[in-house]
């Protein structure tokens, strides 16, 4: 396996890279196993990751983009895309009761993404997540899970399952 990210964008796009093939290039050990297990969970639950851009895969469920996974050398990141459902309301709050009942509120709060002006879009916005207000939150990626451990992966799976259920109800 080689570092495909060095290829031009158009070549990568034509290759339709599978994330399972790229994870071993970027991740090692327990991090690799966790990422591969997470992708297997997604496929088993009809959330098919497909290549989106360099080192980035989007996962859809019934035509709705529900998650993005990004790889970098030694690290991976999961970004649930629920904020796109309603730009006026932080969509994590749609599932506030379920997240609280599972004891996952603290995990979401710990993964709120503070604006770093990465796309010259700063400053961030003030947003409330599950009863707690945060300042300077990235409005493109308000919550992201970097190198998620078992607890974070459990939280992500719960959120994705809630999203799937909501999508199924609305279709």
Task: Summarize this structure briefly.
The chain is α+β, with helices and mostly antiparallel strands and 171 residues long. The protein has 6 helices and 7 strands. It has one domain (4-170).
Beta strand %:
15-25%
Q: How do the SSEs run, as a string of H and E?
A: HHHEEEEHHEEEH
Share in helix: 25-40%
What is the terminal separation in angstroms? 40 Å
Q: What is the topology, as strand order, of the major beta sheet?
A: 1-2-3-4-7
Shape: globular
Give a description of the structure.
The protein has one domain. The chain is 37% helix and 23% strand. The protein has helices at residues 9-15, 19-26, 29-44, 96-101, 105-110, 150-170; strands spanning 48-53, 56-61, 64-72, 75-80, 125-129, 132-137, 145-146. The strands form 2 sheets. It has a 5-stranded antiparallel β-sheet with strand order 1-2-3-4-7. Strands 5-6 form a two-stranded antiparallel ribbon. Mean pLDDT is 86; it is low at 83-89.
Keywords:
5-stranded antiparallel beta sheet; 171 residues; alpha+beta
List the helices and strands and how they pair.
Layout: H1 9-15, H2 19-26, H3 29-44, E1 48-53, E2 56-61, E3 64-72, E4 75-80, H4 96-101, H5 105-110, E5 125-129, E6 132-137, E7 145-146, H6 150-170
Antiparallel strand pairs: 1-2, 2-3, 3-4, 4-7, 5-6
